[in-house]
Structure to design on (638 residues):
């Protein structure tokens, strides 16, 4: 249970596996944190599929001053807005101005009148088909941060993860994006494939990683053959689980970088956890690219703060 | 239980998921068939990990005339010869003459003196690391069939499956090979990934298949992005499970064909089940290559027959 606070509003990043709630003060600083189950546990019917009860359980102590006449604003992003989530928030098509998300929020019907809950929509693309949900808020945070530093947000942004997103940002708008299944494939291969016998639990050989990034980046067609070769090397030379883990990760990320069709000298912005950003920075460095890393949680909060500010400006809520 | 027969010898194709035994007459024709559990069930300890008991249960009725002084010859290939199998049969390195497998058989220690059991070794490669076990026998069958038709076996041979093998054969020897994890990735993606929600059970859209083969063949770096796009298309346009299944299969096979680095005009020989050979023939045709298909079971039996003939010639057994 989180401590009693009187936040100005509540920011919520509600993904597939976790819900993270933040008590925000009037300046946009984090006063407190709480967490709960992700969408998949709730959508699967645990806790009666009751997203509202799950949220209230996490943030009840932050609602001391909230009442029906002055409800607590909750701004959420992520899979909570999917069809299997709490309330469907739809998709905005590309090109999409990242500062405009606050104008397309879905208001969530609630039973507890102390809440005024909103969900940020996802972004969709038709050619080729693609969708994002959650990353658009991180991209809005990135655009806001660039803008307040006096730059026009632009360039290639990579958000590594289970489904890694690569977005082209031009003049503050997302114009095109793609999704590589790198993280999900890594999990499937290391946990459920024949390669599961070959990999170490946690340790990863850095040289095997870099070598494999280069191999797959320069010849992505070799990907699945090179993956099987990891197994064969284990059989023929004895296991080195850290080397196997480094190779599988490096091959998948190297193929992802090849798919991103980077231009020589292009600067890449990474948004994610420090660990993932470090792995992707190392991978990019192995093939001659440099990257700046931004913390994923900070970008979510910045993006949700932008959306909240838009709600206030539009007089939809009282700050 | 199989019917009582007096075969000349017994051929066994013992893979990961199935054991297939054949009662062979003196001319090399199949007199009868029997089956049993594959290596993985036995290696996992079911039936007491007793490969010999499992074989005897399947072929007992074929052993009426076998005795310790004149045992029944059983020639086996496949994962039964792996470290987790009945008896390890080792690997022969490339380049390896396909007519020479019979000289490197592992004789299996047996409790039942009515049996004289042998396992064909696998083939290994160091640069890059790769292994095959089972396919070498099909390749030996292919080489024997080519030889008896007056041709020198040569060219590219593809053996599609869970782990698809691509072998270069020159003057009757396997000189190089690679393994694409196409079948295993297809199963992982359609059963355990986010794409599992999108695919139909059995039906496959032929046009989506061919289009996707071409897309991945010409740009294999797009593979994992194109896979996620299947999911996104389902979300945005409504499901068409047959189209999704065709796209996933086509993308994986197209990327495999790109990895095979085919030369324009190259003739490919396919060895496998009729269904897999048809899918690969269609895929090759979609990118401008033609293929001849050989039945996988026929090639195993032809290869095992060659090995048996070598045993007889070497007087290791009496025909």
């Amino acid at each position: 249970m989180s401590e009693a606070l009187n936040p100005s509003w509540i920011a919520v990043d509600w993904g597939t596996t976790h819900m993270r709630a933040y008590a925000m003060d009037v300046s946009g600083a984090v006063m407190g944190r709480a967490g709960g189950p992700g969408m998949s546990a709730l959508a699967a019917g645990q806790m009666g599929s009751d997203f509202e009860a799950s949220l209230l359980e996490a943030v009840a102590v932050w609602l001391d001053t909230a009442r029906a006449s002055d409800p607590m604003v909750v701004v959420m992003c992520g899979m909570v807005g999917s069809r299997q989530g709490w309330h469907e928030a739809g998709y905005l098509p590309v090109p999409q101005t990242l500062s405009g998300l606050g104008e397309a929020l879905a208001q969530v019907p609630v039973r507890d009148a102390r809440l005024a809950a909103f969900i940020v929509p996802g972004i969709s693309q038709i050619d080729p088909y693609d969708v994002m949900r959650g990353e658009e808020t991180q991209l809005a945070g990135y655009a806001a941060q660039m803008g307040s530093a006096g730059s026009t947000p632009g360039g290639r942004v990579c958000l590594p993860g289970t489904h890694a997103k690569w977005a082209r940002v031009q003049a503050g708008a997302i114009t095109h994006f793609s999704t590589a299944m790198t993280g999900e494939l890594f999990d499937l291969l290391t946990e459920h494939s024949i390669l599961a016998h070959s990999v170490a639990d946690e340790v990863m050989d850095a040289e095997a990683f870099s070598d494999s990034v280069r191999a797959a980046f320069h010849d992505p067609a070799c990907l699945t053959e090179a993956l099987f070769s990891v197994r064969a090397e284990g059989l023929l030379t004895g296991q080195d689980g850290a080397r196997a883990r480094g190779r599988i990760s490096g091959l998948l990320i190297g193929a992802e970088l090849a798919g991103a069709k980077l231009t020589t000298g292009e600067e890449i912005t990474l948004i994610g956890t420090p660990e993932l950003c470090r792995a992707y920075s190392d991978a990019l460095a192995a093939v001659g690219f440099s990257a700046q890393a931004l913390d994923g949680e900070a970008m979510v909060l910045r993006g949700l703060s932008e959306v909240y500010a838009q709600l206030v400006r539009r007089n939809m809520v009282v700050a």
User: Anything to note?
Assistant: Chain B touches chain A at residues 83, 91, 124-126, 128-131, 163, 178-182, 184-185, 188-189, 192-194, 220-229, 231-233, 235-237, 252, 255-256, 258-259, 261 (CB under 8 Å).
